[in-house]
Amino acid sequence: MKSRVDSALFPAPGGPALVVGGVAVHPGYIDPAAQAALVEDLRGVIRAAPLFSPMTPQGRAMSVRMTAAGRYGWFSDRTGYRYIPSHPAGTPWPPIPDAVLAIWRALVSAERMPDCCLVNFYAASARMGLHQDRDEADFSWPVLSVSLGDEALFRVGGTTRGGPTQSVWLRSGDVAILGGAARLAFHGIDRVRAASSTLLPKGGRINLTLRVVD
Ligand code: SIN
Ligand code: MN
User: Fold this and answer.
1) Residue 3 above 80 pLDDT?
2) Residue 39 and residue 199: Cα distance in Å, rounded?
3) Which ligand 1 atom minimizes the distance to the CA of 133?
4) Is residue 211 lining ligand 1, measured as CB closer than 6 Å?
5) Which residue segments constitute the domains of the chain, with CATH numbers given?
């Protein structure tokens, strides 16, 4: 698939990417001081747009709690998966923090900023089943993922369900890019390794995904 990512498979400022199932992983791209600053930014996002537990279309509460920043937030309920222009409480989504946009600018493009920064919070028992990110209008833009806090086992497959998969532990500060042929790869989180990071005082993992929506 055509991709707007120029840099995903080439050395980035933080060092060369590791390619896992077509996903470019930049280990330790964000240094510890910048991770701590990002967490502070995200506290502000969560104050303005509190975490909630989306319901799957099948009526089950997802184990991951979510919120968002940007023009859109991702949402799910009995009606299905979609982007919505305000928090479920009716308040506007806060802006995407500048430090988050800077990661996108450095690794993806300065031409177009993402419309949505989805914030996923994983407690130790949370997981995310294999899925594709396909609620966006233009798959030529990648999805960029930032991991903060406890390590998580990320599984990535091909573009059809049920094929072979590969796994990699994503650690605090890692950035992963699902672009090109991997833009529609099935992916998910099998488990979180509790207490593997001290970034978040109460533990857990935050994952940010930046998406161009429309
Ligand atoms: C997602 O697929 O939305 C999140 C992936 C992750 O938590 O690393
Ligand atoms: Mn996803």
Assistant:
1) no
2) 8
3) 2
4) no
5) 18-211 (2.60.120.590)
